[in-house]
What does this fold into?
Amino acid sequence: MLTLLDELGLGEDFARLGAHHVQGASIPVAGGGEPVTVVDLSRLRVQHPYIAMAPQWDVLTLLAEAAAREPGFELRTNAEALGPVVEGGAVRGVRWRPVPPGSPAGTGDRPEPERELHATVTLVCDWRGSALRREAGMVPRSWPVPFDVWWVRVPGHSALSETLAPRGGRGLLYVLIPRGDYVQAGIIFPRGGGPGLLAGGIEALRRRFSEDLPELAAGLAGLAEEDLKFLRVELSRLRTWYRRGLICLGDAAHTMSPPPPPWAGWA
It folds into this structure.
């Protein structure tokens, strides 16, 4: 994507977002030894040998502002896509309706009437539960996944190097992503195990996380239950990700997550 942004003339604009660069992944060694590097992106012979981590909203705003400078571009916000417009067996656009600002899609006593937006090609990228994909009759193949994730933002300057840092601890797996002045921590636990982990209350959970991740203990001190952002991990993909006039992208085409490594303790 970084090369594509350069080719579009947006590389410098993206750099001004202050993205944090992740150059690899390493695994700590018991006893305080030197971490074992399992991924080293700096060895790639490309212009940007790293993963750039930036807030999604900032990136989308950058792209929208750049697109607005192009003739014929129109961005419609506060809109809910309802399904494809199908003519002669081909998709020719989408059915949609306006949604009042601040109202969740599909709610309201008096919803706005449906409208149509016609297009030669419709790109579907409305997340893993894509309504457009479903209405187009496209059903992804799914595989069972034995784990879920809590994402937590841990404040405080990251003491981690610019690497993804997997960690194991008492049946849990942690993925630590340095983001400059905070750490994005993924807490991976067996599917359905969230309530059990919270059974002892948030204080007991904070203590467990702090013992497993002592370098983040100060930032975890203020952890509240509402700070745990739950993600149900899915593994699915469309066998055919297009039909006439329609192309599925991103999670609408494939929601892929790698299995936990054997040292996670419960894989």
Observations:
- Residues 42 and 183 are 21 Å apart (CA to CA).
- Residues 258-267 have pLDDT under 50 and may be disordered.
